Amino acid sequence: MLQSSGNAPVGWDAAVNMARTNVVQAGDPSVSEQEKKEVKSNIELAQNWLNSVTNFSTKTINSNSWCRSEWIAATVPTWKKIVEPVAQRVQKSMTNSFPNIPGMDEGQQAMLKPLLESLKPMSAAMFSMQVSNGLSALASEVLCLTDIGLPLGDTSIPSLIPRNIKEFSVGLSVPESDFFVFIALRETAASRLFSNVAWLSPTLLSAIEEYSSQISVSNNKVNDLMSQIDPTNPESIQEIISGGLFEPELNESQKSALKRTERLLALIEGWIDNVTTKAIDNRLPSFQPLSEMLRRRRVSKSPMQHLFATLLGLEVSPRKLRECTKFWDEVESQIGIEGRDARFEDAALLPTGADLADVSKFLAS
């Protein structure tokens, strides 16, 4: 990691290679022809069910069936946009604070000076390791491309990870086939939303980038941690970095960006909940236990949410998701499917946090 990172904030080649190596060593067979057929048939069924419950049309009849390492490869470009600004800001905060550690005399600072040049690659190595571990863990758990409503790749084509779906279904009290079509339906609904609403993906990602590009680390925290470094023990730098140096301080602009991101993610998830509930109707007897499973997964944090919370402090509360699901239910009941989907014609037509509590007032405005 140190050798590959250099002065870059993240050594992406090494991180991705290690992540893919990890999933391959744990067992990552190629998607079989039978699994591809299952994905294709379930996506086609989902498309058919969605035709009558959303005004958004499908843009393609295709689908993707990925193994875990293929999911990593497909999502890396988006991870770069999300993670790299964070790594850059943390690296800058560290190197700026390092020469100004209080309580050190000139001799001690002189001993530490040669380590300053190693700080950038060490920071990059730490981030590279965190990204690598995060990607390999996620690749073993995510069920589809838009697992939390975030566009991590080309959302125009519904994409499933059949092995993860089958492994996750083992612990459920519902048939694997029901769970498969349930996930296919949610992924296909998300695909229709993102591919029909051109502004949605860039707006969501730009809000995350706005937050991450301004991230900073408390100088007091850095100074306190750096003062614990033993100049005769370079390993102490790694221990300090690993012990919580990456906890950010948020300014008002970042807090605003986080609120917008969390609200938009909740609105996307709430819309998907509303549409899939309407699409399933009475077609899937196990729908209620599957919905309960999804609720528990949200409460305990999905793997994607856990990674965002670790890297960015981004978290969508289950309460906010319930509010947005109820909001779309009420909107659909008052102005119909076409009116509901028309709220996505422009970002300004979506509700603020205060609007969620009074749908009639929101629609009247």
Overall description:
The protein contains 15 helices and 4 strands. The chain is mostly helical. The strands form 2 sheets. A two-stranded parallel ribbon has the order 1-2. Strands 3-4 form a two-stranded antiparallel sheet. The model has no long low-confidence stretch (mean pLDDT 84).
Radius of gyration over C-alpha positions, nearest whole angstrom: 23 Å
- Pattern of helices and strands: HHHEHHEHHHEHHEHHHHH
Task: Tell how many strands the DSSP assignment holds.
Answer: 4
The helix count comes to 15
**Percent range for β-strand residues:** under 5%
Q: Given the C-alpha coordinates, what overall shape results?
A: globular
Profile the largest sheet: 2 strands, parallel
Structural class: mainly alpha
Low-confidence segments:
none
Tell me the span between the first and last alpha carbons: 55 Å
Q: What spatial order of strands do you see in the largest sheet?
A: 1-2
The average pLDDT score comes to 84
What portion of residues is helical?
55-70%
